[in-house]
Amino acid sequence: MQKKTLKIVIVGDSGVGKTSLMNRYSSGKFTGQYKATIGADFLTRDNVVVADYYGINHLVTLQIWDTAGQERFNSLGTGFYRGADACLLVYDITDPHSFDNLNHWRQQFLEKVGGGLMGLTDSSGTFPFVVLGNKSDKAMERLVAPEQAEEWCRNASGATIMGSQPLPHFETSAKTSENVEDVFVEAARRALIYE
Ligand code: GTP
Ligand code: MG
Prior knowledge:
Blueprint: E1 3-12, H1 18-27, E2 40-51, E3 57-67, H2 78-81, E4 86-92, H3 96-100, H4 102-113, E5 129-134, H5 146-156, E6 159-160, E7 163-164, E8 169-171, H6 180-193
Parallel strand pairs: 1-3, 1-4, 4-5, 5-8
Antiparallel strand pairs: 2-3, 6-7
Keywords: GTP-binding, Lipoprotein, Nucleotide-binding, Prenylation, Protein transport, Transport
Protein name: Ras-related protein Rab-7b
GO molecular function: GTP binding; GTPase activity
């Protein structure tokens, strides 16, 4: 197996759980306390086995880059995003505003990543995005239906070299771990298409 490093950037509104998802995935921990991310940070997870679309296993290192959702703390230049191989677009299922902002985050990411994937970062929907509705453990407070998110994913997608598919959508919980492993593996799998 060949070893690759894949850079996965997490974006979305403040408070949706980006840092919590990164911490859950890289260290298996969760805290209910909120501490706003200032600037950005990254953590790695080594020796992740990812099967590509042809069923071939790859041994990869995932570099997870966490960003600040609060605009005033988000003064990151394009350097931070450059070379990103995949992007997690996160909203909170109890916060419709965070869902409405997905377009903004997707657009901003594509503008900043620029030189990342040659020719693949245009608006035709080819960049490997994965859409996450986080806080699935708070189903009683849900204000965004999965169907709404899936419709957005269909509209945001375009033709890929794997054919035309909606962007993948998962409901996750950094609190219970639901689907957390799966979203990172799916992001890596999509990134491998372009390697
Ligand atoms: P910024 O750094 O400001 O952009 O916020 P963020 O997106 O990194 O959010 P963060 O991970 O700090 O989480 C915000 C709050 O939501 C914290 O109190 C977390 O404990 C809580 N939280 C995050 N994920 C979940 C989840 O899946 N379920 C529940 N119930 N709470 C969560
Ligand atoms: Mg954060």
